[in-house]
Amino acid sequence: MADQILIDVPHQEQEWSWDCGLASVKMIFQYYSIPYRKDFNEKKKALSIHTSVWTIDLFRLLRAYNIPCRFATITLGANKDYKSMSFYTEAFRKDECRINSSISNAVEGGLGVEKRHVTLSEIIEHLTKNLPIIALIDSSNLKCLQCHNLDILSSICLAPCMKGYQGHFIVVRGFHKQKEIIYYSNPAKSTDLCCCTFKVFEECRTSFGTDEDLIFIDKEHTSDMCYSLL
Hints:
Layout: E1 4-6, H1 20-31, H2 40-46, H3 55-64, E2 69-73, H4 89-108, E3 113-115, H5 120-127, E4 133-138, E5 143-144, E6 149-150, E7 167-176, E8 181-185, E9 194-197, H6 198-205, E10 214-217
InterPro entries: GUCD1
Organism: Dimorphilus gyrociliatus
Protein name: DgyrCDS9566
């Protein structure tokens, strides 16, 4: 297995405080040179995706563009334990039925939604195939070794929400085994590439509130890939 991998994924900066997940999906689209701009808003509307974006929404959006992917999570559905968390309170009441229905349909349809824990070793093995991962993390503790500060302090000001869990999507792009570093793109920053230690990454992605959500992109990057846009 390679000691170091860095996948060349084009960076996409988010426009608002809530669209980090959509920006992460757009990075994947650009990685595969998939045209999406003309019908992106239409597909979002068809999937009932608004300003409250959950991991299953991103999974369905990727699938709508025929991108093979798998969604691993330790909770199938909206976790009721999050009702009292300030980050989720308003969105939970509004989205619970939609999220539960979306996940249930994906599971029953055999679309690649898996209830299980994922190890760091599995993540690294996936990255060695030159395949990126979208990860839900708690950004309140995410420290970039290159930026020397908390990633949450970015061009998108999220200061009012700094206390407690802060759900945020990033695109995991590689690793350095000897240095025990994970490389990723953070849509909340203008910086193309960030990195953190294995330890910090594991703490952030397994934090209470994330359900350890990961979307594995399962198609190798080739210049002649062709997608039918549904």
